[in-house]
Specification:
Oligomer: single chain
CATH class of the domain at 41-363 and 507-514 and 524-539: Alpha Beta
Distance between the termini: 54 Å
Strand content: 15-25%
Radius of gyration: 23 Å
CATH architecture of the domain at 41-363 and 507-514 and 524-539: 3-Layer(aba) Sandwich
CATH topology of the domain at 41-363 and 507-514 and 524-539: Alkaline Phosphatase, subunit A
Largest sheet: 9 strands, mixed
Low-confidence stretches: 6-43
Number of strands: 19
């Protein structure tokens, strides 16, 4: 039996409420804020001609407080001259890349848009399905992955825009295929992601072919050959980084043979090392510049949408942790990179025609070793074998009890219905017995059963509502495990991850920058599911009536729009 362990990470601190009560209270609060906001929100005279939707993969919500003194450019501009929601969270679990980008783009939680995880099990074939896997699609270049948005069950903001304004263009870019595809929605004009083997930006035949000339030219330019230095070195003096901890921290992944700066780019590992450094973000932003110029985005009599997911921050965070010198230097460089990009956009489009929103798909658990040594929180690294071993023992015990020749606990949190039928009990009763056994295993904090996750009522258990928001019955298991807070369940001795409902995994930034804002910080609970309907209100289009998100009234919309 193989039991897939989801990497442990963090969650949302909102007290569980019955689903209907939660939505009613939230609606009334938003209505009151909307009435008050009318008095002081500055009005634009027209919708923006270019909306740039930026997701910084694994950007934690606390970076603007913790590292604020280091930011002098793009982050500082967006924070001080834009609108920041300081208490934004995902409000669902699992906190992963696929669900993160689908939620921010559709205005729906995973239970509606269908992307419940980066991958799930097809119960008919018992095979793992990648969230953007598509056997009907083909890559535009031989040997590349076959992916598309066909698993996405709901239209995204780009689809809403195209339906209302067919002349509008929607472009989505990322290093990761799932990020570009799920941000772009079902029918963008183009979605591009990075291919390691060719070092090219590629797509699939789900999207229009051939690739535009500006993409072909970018690929032919061999970006890494001309922009990658001999080594990744620190941008600021060592003393700046030392205030946050040491460079050499147990739990960090090695870069070649050591964990400390400088990090030389090795010829054989150059591609992987590039995207696991600030230069991966720089490359993607250069591609975004080519998209703006090549497609004349924002310079036509319509609204265009450019979606950008900056993946390198996630690779750095996984390898070195969110508190490492590597992450700090990446953020300092990203601050400069975004500043340059904002100036580029302003020069091409004009600030009066531009709206930029910045958020993230999830946060991350600190390296357990860092959390222990720096005394910021209790955390520990738990071997996946230490979880799987007692699960296998529980499975063996249940097999003996029910005289089963097959495993009782199946991969990806399923129970064996054949065993239940043979024993004369329901699968639900068997799942309840499995839960009882799982809760005895150290490191497992709770287990939620399918019936509880499909229900719209609540019994007041912590995080149940967040797991309900993330559960898709057709793609979910018979139970979901929540590991203990601060626990990293892993097969490795280095790095960190995410996926949990805890605050360190689900607290992300939400910033809007473009028109002049009358207020620059909002300290109330909002969620990434609110971004798409907020953009729709600003653009002047109607979102679907049954989405989960609510337009944020603090963000000014053009005069005459709802």
């Amino acid at each position: 039996m193989f039991f897939r362990i989801r990497p442990a990470s963090g969650g949302d601190r909102i007290s569980p409420l019955p689903f209907g009560t939660y939505m009613i209270r939230r609606f009334l609060r938003i209505l009151l804020l909307s009435i008050v906001a009318i008095a002081w929100l500055p009005a634009q005279s027209h919708p923006p001609r270019l909306v740039v939707f930026v997701s910084v993969d694994q950007l934690k919500g606390n970076v603007f407080d913790r590292f604020d003194s280091l930011f002098t450019d793009g982050f500082r501009t967006m924070r001080s001259d834009g609108l920041r929601f300081s208490r934004a969270t995902l409000n669902y679990a699992p906190s992963e890349t696929g669900p993160g980008h689908a939620t921010m783009s559709t205005g729906c939680y995973p239970w509606k848009h269908g992307i419940c995880s980066n991958d799930w099990i097809n119960t008919a074939t018992e095979k793992e399905i990648y969230c953007v896997e598509d056997t009907a699609a083909e890559a535009q270049e031989p040997g590349h992955s076959i992916v598309s948005p066909r698993n996405l069950l709901r239209p995204a903001i780009g689809d809403w825009l195209k339906a209302a304004s067919p002349a509008s263009k929607v472009i989505a870019l990322s290093i990761k295929d799932r990020a570009a595809i799920l941000m772009g929605g079902r029918h963008p004009d183009l979605a591009l992601w990075f291919d390691h083997d060719s070092e090219h930006m590629i797509s699939s035949d789900y999207y229009p072919a051939p690739l535009p000339a500006w993409v072909t030219a970018f690929n032919a330019s061999r970006w890494m050959d001309h922009h990658l230095p001999e080594a990744w070195t620190l941008l600021l003096p060592d003393s700046v980084y030392r205030t946050f901890g040491p460079d050499d921290m147990p739990g960090e992944r090695r870069w070649d043979t050591c964990r400390t700066f400088p990090h030389p780019f090795m010829p054989i590992q150059r591609v992987d090392q590039c995207i696991m450094s600030p230069y991966g973000n720089a490359m993607l932003l250069d591609l975004a510049r080519q998209a703006v110029d090549g497609e004349r985005l924002g310079r036509r009599d319509t609204t265009d949408l450019l979606c950008i997911s900056l993946s390198s921050t996630d690779y750095i965070g996984h390898a070195f942790g969110p508190d490492s010198w590597e992450m700090i230097d990446n953020l300092v460089r990203l601050d400069r990179q975004l500043g340059d990009f904002l100036r580029f956009l302003t020069s091409r489009v004009g600030r009066e025609h531009l709206l930029v929103v910045l958020t993230a798909d999830h946060g991350a658990l600190p390296l357990p070793e860092y959390a222990q040594d720096m005394h910021t929180m209790q955390a520990r690294r738990i071997s996946a074998a230490d979880i799987n071993r007692p699960i296998l023992a529980l499975d063996s015990l249940l097999r003996v009890r029910y005289h089963a020749t097959e495993h009782v606990i199946l991969q990806n949190e399923y129970v064996n219905e054949r065993v239940a039928r043979s024993a004369g009990i329901t699968p639900e009763a068997l799942a309840e017995e499995v839960r009882t056994g799982l809760l005895r295993i150290p490191g497992i904090a709770d287990v939620y059963l399918r019936a509880e996750l499909e229900s719209r009522s609540t019994d007041g258990r912590p995080f149940l509502e967040q797991y309900r928001h993330g559960f898709v019955p057709e793609r979910g298991g018979d139970f979901v495990i929540r590991f203990c807070e601060g626990c990293l369940v892993t097969n490795g001795s280095t790095g960190t991850s995410h996926g949990s409902p805890y605050f360190y995994d689900t607290n992300v930034p939400i910033l809007f920058w473009g028109p002049r804002m009358a207020v620059h910080r909002v300290d109330r609970d909002v969620h990434t599911v609110d971004i798409a309907p907020t953009l729709a209100r600003i653009i002047g289009i109607a979102p679907p009536s049954d989405i989960d998100g609510i337009a944020l009234p603090e963000v000014p919309a053009p005069a005459g729009t709802q």
